[in-house]
Amino acid sequence: MTILRKIAFIYFIVLLGAAALNYIPGIVDTDGLAFGIFALDIFDDALHLASALWALGAAITSHRASKLFLLIFGALYLADGALGLATGSGFLDFGIFNNGVLDLPFGFKILANLPHISLGGIALLSGLLLDRR
User: Fold this and answer.
1) Containing structural domain, residue 66
2) What is the pLDDT of residues 40-54, one digit of tens each?
3) Contacts 24+ apart (CB under 8 A), 22-31
4) What is the predicted pLDDT for the residue at 119?
5) What is the DSSP letter of 32?
6) How many C-beta neighbours within 10 Å does residue 97 have?
7) Are 120 and 74 in contact (CB under 8 A)?
């Protein structure tokens, strides 16, 4: 199994965990915020689950499928996090279309978008730099 296939499998586990956050007692507070920072709805859960299944399918299929997953997923999630950092709303959950630009404290925007920036950046860099079989 190549390093990119292993990384895609790790993304399957991480994204499955993200999809499950709303259903683990103690993670979501009384205001419906995970870790007191961001709200995840059923659409977010479905997006994370679909991404997890895409990662698993890529990891099982081939090195090339894993590389393609890491590049596309990485670019999409990194761009979503960057847009969220700039505007307070991302595009993957249609937040920028539904909510527009939100006036949120910059520190909050960093915390809320750090997961997508980190996951996207690591995936994109992995797909670009670790293409050895």
Assistant:
1) 3-129
2) 778 888 999 999 999
3) none
4) 97
5) S
6) 9
7) yes
How many CB atoms neighbour CB 65 within 10 A? Answer: 17
Phi/psi for 21 (5° steps) reads -55, -40
Dist. CA 36–CA 3, nearest whole Å: 34
Q: Which residues are CB-neighbours of 42 under 8 A, at least 6 positions away?
A: none
How many domains is the chain partitioned into structurally?
A: 1
- The three-class DSSP label of residue 28 is strand
Which residue matches tokens 């296939």?
A: 5
pLDDT at residue number 52: 98
Selection from 57, 82, 77 nearest residue 119 by Cα: 77
Q: State the alpha helices, DSSP H only, in the chain.
A: 3-20, 42-61, 63-87, 95-98, 106-129
- Fill in the amino acid letter for 98: N
Asked whether residue 132 carries a pLDDT value surpassing 70, the answer given is no
Confidence tier at 88 by pLDDT (50, 70, 90): confident
Q: Are 57 and 65 in contact (CB under 8 A)?
A: yes
The confidence score (pLDDT) of residue 75 equals: 98
User: Residue 62, Cβ neighbours under 10 Å: how many?
Assistant: 14
Q: For 85-113, what is the mean pLDDT?
A: 88
